[in-house]
Amino acid sequence: MEGLPPGSRAPAGAQAVSYTRDPLGFLARHQRRFGDIFTVRFPFFGHIVYVARPDLVKAVFTGSPSVFHAGEANATVLEPALGPNSVLTLDGEPHMRQRKLLLPPFHGERIQRYGELIVEMTRKEMESWPVGEPFALRPHTQRITLAVIMRAVFGVHDEARLERFERLIDDFARRVGVITSFPFMRRDLGRWSPWNRFLRSREALDEFIYEEIRMRRAEPGHEERDDVLSLLLGARDEDGAAMSDTELRDELVTVLGAGHETTATGLAWAVERLVRNPAVLAKLRDSIAAGSEEYLGATVKETLRARPVIVDVARKLKAPARVGEWDLPAGTFVLPAIAALHYREDLFPAPEEFRPERFLDGKADNYAWIPFGGGVRRCIGAAFAEYEMRLILREFVERAELRAVDEKPERVKVRNITLTPARGARVIQASAAA
Ligand code: HEM
Asked: What phi and psi, each to the nearest 5 degrees, are found at residue 367?
């Protein structure tokens, strides 16, 4: 740890175990104990420097993209799933090219065209909720966000194809976790080894996606369609070049991977927090009944503060860089510690409390509230995710009467690279949804 910011001397394995047990607490505790820039050690990844103060976060997010590589850092974990052309795993010029192609379909105004679809999928899913008995909400929110992504992003509407697509995604999702979490598993250890099973599920999913791309290209009038795949088929880069099929595949899988579990988990947390804060829930219900969206928007922001679905975002230094008072060597991983920042008393007084009022002016500081990361890597789907969360949450609150199964907050559990409620946000619905 010579020359690196302070940190615990505990063995890497022990640090990884305490991180996995309680990632929110782990990062917040480190910030309180070691300061705003600290070092941790994990197996496989080695030393990682975390920053947890807005000016340091700003230095990382606005640092030169050719020095602060995000793609390389993300690729360590995600490349087997997303591929070499993914906006998440690229850096420099190739990253900017993909990002510029991908941004327009997710622009604030464009996404509003999916509003009706989101509401329709939500109402349909709510019909399957049990009444008067405990159930976990997260699988339901995930079915909604998946239904939305398959239609709004991929433009699939045929029932038989939707069913097949969902099975393939499900299989892929089941196989991918172990591969992303444990790089040493990426080895051919026989037909039934995790790696080979993963490769087979990826191949089957890819086959479906390439089929969809071929069919869409051949479809007369696809230029008029408003799903993301059709929009991307018409997208051109600065040299007038269209996206290749492999680029399309990698970006679509990226959006699928980055977009539906995250939003579903955010929604599950929103309900987990709301049912344990009945006064906030009542206020939200009243504000919606009065036709206001302000408190709803603030509730979504406060959920992502108190329970950030992703706790940290990574950059890998391509050259030595100064961050705060530290000269960090090339090769160092530097991570804004989202969770530690969101629990700073000076930025968010009484951080343990769930208080949407903090965000009632609609604004959130770019370097203090960072559930979507920042800079030239800020989440492309941020506007879409917040919009989707607002619409779905409004349906839940307006149409269903939900309460907690027990008073104790749900523990935070690491699932792939996200933080989810350990019991899936268990609730009871008092009577059938209106
Ligand atoms: C609550 C839901 C979501 C959360 C918490 C979330 C969070 C994040 C975070 C933390 C990053 C990394 C940013 C960085 O490195 O600075 C990211 C990147 C990204 N997200 Fe999201 N995301 C969500 C939903 C979505 C959705 C719905 C989509 C697509 C429709 C999406 C697409 C992406 C893409 C493409 C990137 C890569 C951007 C780049 O590297 O240039 N995300 N997201």
From this structure: -115, 10
